[in-house]
Amino acid sequence: MLALNKLYVVGIGPGAADQMTVRALRALEKCDVIAGYGVYVDLVKPLLPDKEYLVTPMRKEADRCRMAIDSALTGKTVAMISSGDAGVYGMAGLIYELSEGKDVEIEVIPGVTAALSGGAVLGAPLTHDFAVISLSDLLTPWDKIEKRLDCAAEADLCMVIYNPASHRRADYLRQACQIVLRHASPETVCGVVRNIGREGEMMQIMTLKELAEYPADMFTTVFIGNCQTKVVDGRMVTPRGYRDV
Amino acid sequence: MLALNKLYVVGIGPGAADQMTVRALRALEKCDVIAGYGVYVDLVKPLLPDKEYLVTPMRKEADRCRMAIDSALTGKTVAMISSGDAGVYGMAGLIYELSEGKDVEIEVIPGVTAALSGGAVLGAPLTHDFAVISLSDLLTPWDKIEKRLDCAAEADLCMVIYNPASHRRADYLRQACQIVLRHASPETVCGVVRNIGREGEMMQIMTLKELAEYPADMFTTVFIGNCQTKVVDGRMVTPRGYRDV
Predict the structure, then answer these.
(1) What span, in angstroms and rounded, lies between the C-alpha atoms of B132 and B162?
(2) What is the ipTM of this complex?
(3) Which of A17, A120, A242 sits opposite B140 (nearest CB)?
(4) Which of A136, A190, A220, B198 is the right S-S partner for A216, CB 3.0 to 4.6 Å?
(5) pLDDT digit string (tens) for A7-23?
(6) Do B129 and A112 touch (CB under 8 A)?
């Protein structure tokens, strides 16, 4: 089968358009249509003003993916853009599921997810093994999330917490910290980053005990260190191992 | 304190130079000196032939970092480059530790780590929570690594395994799979990617039982799915949750 219809699923990185890879930029240049949420489209549009844009503000995610697939099936070259990486809690999986058996060639172009971009703002919190866990219980039962936090803490994994809070889930981060505190010291070095790569970017380093009281919002990414993580010149740094280099 | 001496720690992504971000490229353009292993320098040099290059082939990592820091302390703008992300098992942490208290302003520029670039080659294996675990026991006791594999599997986290094998550690991946098999089905969908983003890139999808017998090498990144991970049109896809969208 010769696939004529090309659909790129592109992660554009954390915020400003210069955080996307050169490869991502080249793929967008090749496209006829760029589809995505309004905020992401607004980041890309100034670079590539002459494209057709499919802005999908309020629809359900499956509908957004179908819209991009349908556009590709008309013979146009389409990019579905998302912030961060296209795979990490992203649309790439849904695109594959919804285009199964259809004549669309999909190419996923990776991007810098918040674990990496936020880590770089804080210093070097992810120099050793880590887990990425979302506190959103929209599609995942809360007891599953609790189990993961408990196991990750028991294993002394650094953790990156995505979606630490929303209006509806104001106290989830506190609950998560209480689970981690079963295994980790209250003095464990933690960090938060807000608005990564965008205007208003800020970071703060604190203890796990303080993190439990931190008013995270949906623009916050949270980092919990392992037992070796320390503060060096105001940065959060996890050493490369448990032995001296 | 006005920092005059600037040291960028730059992740250049998985392989070809177009996998680095525009921001990384801009930082390298601003530098006087680019330091790194020969293979990474060779990737960057064609783009920026007029820079001073510090090639550090056989030295110990701490020495490489000191060399870059010392160069920055002479007033030059320096970039220390590494593959993937500068923070994930990277040099950023060591740079912070070794420059503590010195008059060097460090800026970490994130890049696409193998979990993301390899994931994009396989499909969308990391759509849900995951752990990144290295099997290298050079700086980490093996029992700590075993504990992490066991906990991650118990929590049904997808896993990305870095450094699955070396000459000295030929059977570590098999051992790791046996630990995961305590909790996961032998039919769990897994994938491997070799030479990500470089010539000779290949991927293969297999079961966990088959992965235990796979002859991984130091150029291989390994992905282990969760209980929901499936194969869609020949790709490894982890759904976004445990409920229907």
Answers:
(1) 7
(2) 0.96
(3) A242
(4) A220
(5) 999 999 998 788 999 99
(6) no
